[in-house]
Amino acid sequence: MDWLDLGLTFVKTLAILLTVVNTVPIMSWVERRGAALIQDRPGPNRVGPLGLIQPIADFVKFIWKEDPTPANVSGVLYTIAPFLSLLPACLVLAALPVGDHLVVMGREVRMQIADLDVGLLYVLAISSLGIYGILFGGWASNNKFSLLGGLRSASQMISYEIPLAIAATGMVLFYGTLNLREIVLWQEGTLLGVLPRWGVVLQPFGFLLFLIAAFAETNRLPFDLPETEAELVAGYHTEYGSMKFATFMMAEYMNLTTISGMMVTLYFGGWHIPWIGDSQLLAWFGGSRNILGLFQFVVFFTKVTAFLFLFVWVRWTVPRFRFDQLMRLAWGRLIPLTLLNLVVSAVVLYLVEGR
Amino acid sequence: MGAIGTGALYWTHYIAISLIALGLIGFLIRRNAVVVLMCLELMLQGVNLLFLEASVRTGTPDGILMVVLIITVGAAEAAVGLGIILNLFRLKGTVELDAFRSLQG
Amino acid sequence: MSPNEWMIAGMGIFVLVCAVAVIFSRSPIYGAFGLVLCFFGMAGLFLAWSSPFLAMIQVLISTGAVVVLFVFVVMLLNLGHGSGGGVAGWVTVLFASGGIWTLSLVLLRALNRSPFYPAPSGAQGAGGLRAFSKLLFTDYLWPFEVLSVFLLAVVVATYVVARPEAGNVARKENR
User: I need a labelling partner for A178 at 20 to 30 A (CA). Which of A71, B49, C106, C109 fits?
Assistant: First the structure.
């Protein structure tokens, strides 16, 4: 691990982190214009062409606005709760593989900040830390409604971590590894010569379960009760103004991007495009690994963008669940279904491949 | 990861036993039932470290398995303990251990 | 001293500082926060001992579920703003601390001199994830299955212990 490796890791971290952080203002624009499109109204269109400068205007507002701190809040916890929410959202990015590898100065550089052998477990573990920001934010606000919103959100997130993990485990049975890069490499090629060998083709039902659990994990509609605007007065981030609120929002959008990245990695082939293998692409790009790497980066983030649009679309289409319906869905329906998925996958794998 | 020299092994002993000792001290001196449970969890972590270190010393995976089992059982007993604390709170309106003296003397 | 040893030393100090913060915390919420940091440090120690699997399991279960449960209970019972019960009288503290440190030293000496404890060999790791999972499903299958039944029993027990009682007693708890 010499200085060049360290420098390259730093550059990789900066690249991936900045890309994902930049999706936050873009997502806020997509959210508002997408909502407007679905609701048949214009949406923000004053600030620039198509309202594209709106996120910048929002950002400027957040910086210059007064940061109110209510009386009787618990000092330290009130201040760090937004950052407790942001930290796991940023840390999970370390394990996502955005491309295969580049060749820099004769070394092979993996397009992933940390090539962990337990990558999938790392993602699940760190995303379970996101609960603390919400819990402490809700409690430190010295406000019963915030506390209720925080507790509800936290119990929702814990409940839906289980189907998320079991659905991912069902997929891991096929891949045989927890290493995210090897999972993507496994998904190259075709199945029966016709279908791409993606996770969603092998386990469409598992993907659906993972998707539902992902919606609930990120507190997005239809599972959005903890932060509903009409009922709990914005829930756990009621008492947070300007920059702290912006941090919570940033954490939420980064969580969205990360979960979309996980879905792309596990189920949609990561950086692969269907039916065209990596070696063929390499030949097209004149044998340059770096251009191929850039292409894979673009493909990966295009797929992530498609999922982000799906999140926005569902948000403005579907009504939200009541809290008891939400919990019954998690414990009574999703967990048995994911377990069934796991068992069926194991049986099919045994019958087909004998292992 | 580089080879672990003999120095680190003894530090790990000190760390693990300090954790167990600190957990035990906290367990005995704190008066709030929830904090007492937290100190119990600390003790379990010290034990985890000792098991892991033994596993690495002998090169067998048994110790790692023990740690997983301990973490699981520790979580389970924390859950039941907290349920009991909830009940105690309903009974007396407080979780200070000084309030529960009916079996004393 | 290799970077690994620096990490063990650093993480060890971090864990002990957080443990002290837990036992001298002025409210259970800060104690829970200290516990989170302590478990994180433990995960770091597990990593330094070449067990990334254990480190992730530690973060996932201990930090991500057990301490969340603690924080839930503290918030539900509104214990966060309290004094945390304080500490027993100074005589108790003195004798408890003294006794326990003596016991620890005895244990430490016993560990280091035990004939059953093999000499340090500078081993690199314990076989990784595959060896562990193979062991889990062969030699330790019985504990594994018993553990799953045990967890079921714990879930049922926790529900039974913690549910509100029917009738008047439930109304009494509204303050």
Answer: B49
Task: State yes or no: pLDDT of B38 exceeds 60.
Answer: yes
Tell me which residues of chain A have a pLDDT lower than 50: 229-230
Question: DSSP letter string over A302-342?
Answer: HHHHHHHHHHHHHHTTSPPPPHHHHHHIIIIIIHHHHHHHH
Do C93 and C75 share a structural domain? no
Query: Does the interface ipTM go beyond 0.90?
Result: no
Residues 98-137 of C with CB under 8 A from B: 100-101, 103-104, 107-108, 111-112, 117-118, 120-128, 131-132, 135-136
Model pLDDT for residues A282-323, shown as the tens digit of each residue: 777 777 778 888 888 899 999 999 999 999 889 888 888 888
C72 → closest Cβ in A117, A128, A151: A151
- Are C154 and C136 members of one domain? yes
Asked whether residue C66 falls in the same domain as residue C92, the answer is no
The answer to whether residue C76 neighbours chain A at the CB level (below 8 Å) is yes
The total of structural domains in chain C comes to: 3
Q: Print the domain residue range for C33.
A: 1-82
**Under DSSP, is residue A350 helix (H, G, I), strand (E, B) or coil?**
helix
pLDDT (0 to 100) of residue B59: 76
What pLDDT score was predicted for residue B5? Answer: 54
Range of the domain at A77: 65-353
Cα separation of B39 and B26, whole Å? 6
Give C-chain residues touching A178 at CB under 8 angstroms: 129
> How many residue contacts between B and C have a Cβ separation below 8 Å?
265
